[in-house]
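Tutorial handout. Part one gives the primary structure; part two gives the three-dimensional structure as C-alpha cells.
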Amino acid sequence: MSIIEIKDLKKIYNDSEVAVHALNGVNLTFQQGEFAAIVGPSGSGKTTLLNLVGGLDEPSEGTIQIDGLNIGELSSRKLINFRLKNIGFVFQSFNLIPVLTAYENVEFIMNLQGYSREKRDARTMELLEAVGLEDRVNSRPSKLSGGQQQRVAVARALASKPKFILADEPTANLDSQSTSNLLDIMEKLNREENITFIFSTHDQRVVNKARRVIQVEDGKVISDEVIQSP
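Part two.
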C-alpha cells in the first residue's frame, strides 16, 4: 500500500544573490513497510527531501501526499497536528530534552496527544523494552551514551504510532557498535511491526541494511534500486 507520493517536487532557496535549487523535480512513491535509504553527497538534497516529506519545510513546487492527503494544503495548525499523529522523526543530534529522563522523553509526545496515564505508562515501557533500555528509564540524557540516547530517540519517534519514521543521519554521531545495535533494533521493528523507515544517510552500514536505495545528486533522483521488497 502506498503511503507517500511525491510529484514534481522542487525546493528553491533565494537567501543569497544566486537561487539554490535544492530539489529539482523529484518523483517518488513509498509503500507501507519499506526500509529505504536516501543517499548522496553533501548538498545533494537528502535532508531537504526529508524535511519536506516531514512537513518541516514547504516546497517551492510540486506535491506531497500522505495517505492521499496533500500536506501542502494544510494550515500551519493542522500540519502541526498531522505531524504529531502521523510522522516520527529521528535526528543525528538526538534532540532529547535534557531535563527529562528517558521515560519522560518517550512519554512527552503522548502527553501532547492527551493519552491517559495508564496508556502512556504501558506504551512507554513497551518501547523502552523494545530498544533495550528498560533498566535506564530514570536516566537523563547526560547519563546515557550516544547510542543509548539515539535508542531513546527511536522509542520517542514510535510513541505516537506514526505512519512512518524519517531518520536524518541517525548514525552520524555513533560508534560502530552503537550503530550496529541501533540498526538491528530498527530492522527488527520494521520487519516485525511493519513500521516504515526512510533514512537520509552517508553511512554505508545503513545502506547495507536498506532494502531500497535512492541516490540523489544536485536535487535529482539519479537511481532508485529496490534490493528487496518489504
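Part three, for discussion. The radius of gyration is 17 Å. Residues 176-193 form the longest helix (18 residues).
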